[in-house]
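To whoever picks this up:

The parser on our side crashed when reading a file containing two proteins. I've narrowed it down to the boundary between the first structure block and the second sequence. Both blocks are reproduced below exactly, byte for byte. First block:
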Amino acid sequence: MSFPERLKAARLALGLTQEQLGFELEVTKSTISAWENGRDAPGFRLLPKLKVVLGLSLDHLICGDAVEGVSASANKYGAQVRNDAEAQLLKSYRRLPVKRREGLLAMIDD
């Protein structure tokens, strides 16, 4: 699977439109389309934010390495989705804008 295919699959797995992903990254829908169709690629400055928004490691996203759909940090803590409820919760979390994710984590953090 190529970068454009992994990007599109990750976006669709989160239930995001190209427009929604573009909003999160502060780029246009046509930019996302160009990335997904292999006409262009994101610049280095966008990669860290792309990683956060999609919840994937850059190794997986760019190179196809790592466990698909699980970020390197999740692997570090041994996190695994155990049932449909956890999978839905993770999917909903990944759809949140970055600022809301940070707020949610602050709220539940000890």
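<<boundary where parser fails>>
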Amino acid sequence: MSDLVRLEAGSLAPDFTLPDQFGHPFTLSSTRGSKTIVYFYGEAGTPACTSQACDFRDNMAVFERAGYRVVGISRDAPDVNAGFARDEGLPQVILSDPTREAHALYGTYGEKQLYGRTVTGVIRATFVLDEAGRIEMPLYNIKATGHVAMLLKKLRLDR
């Protein structure tokens, strides 16, 4: 686990280009000028990932009023992400990273603990970026349930 990248607050967020749920290329640096929340999740349609994505959906107006764009990233193919976004009514951009290019840049794939066992997989993480594309808040090994509420509190956006 020690060979995993761990990004720190103040560093420039690594840039990448990945296909969105419509198959269009999306480059992270295109969000400069806006605050951005980038979250990595395991798999579209699983209970925890669906709950997390829907929590972002249900609070999208709060994030948008505060000037944030929200971007989710999984290893799922664009057509799987398209179905996930359609079925759950997700307004956020959902990116496909089947080769784990962005996961490698952000240290979000590797060994982790799951039910007391060491497994290899997606390390759920969220990164809050400022308008210049710098990481304000790197959050690794987060829990899907309650994550958005915790994020709203940390960003002082909770009602």
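After patching the parser it read the second block fine. Strands lie at 17-19, 25-27, 35-40, 68-74, 93-96, 109-114, 117-122, 125-129, 135-140. The mean pLDDT is 93.
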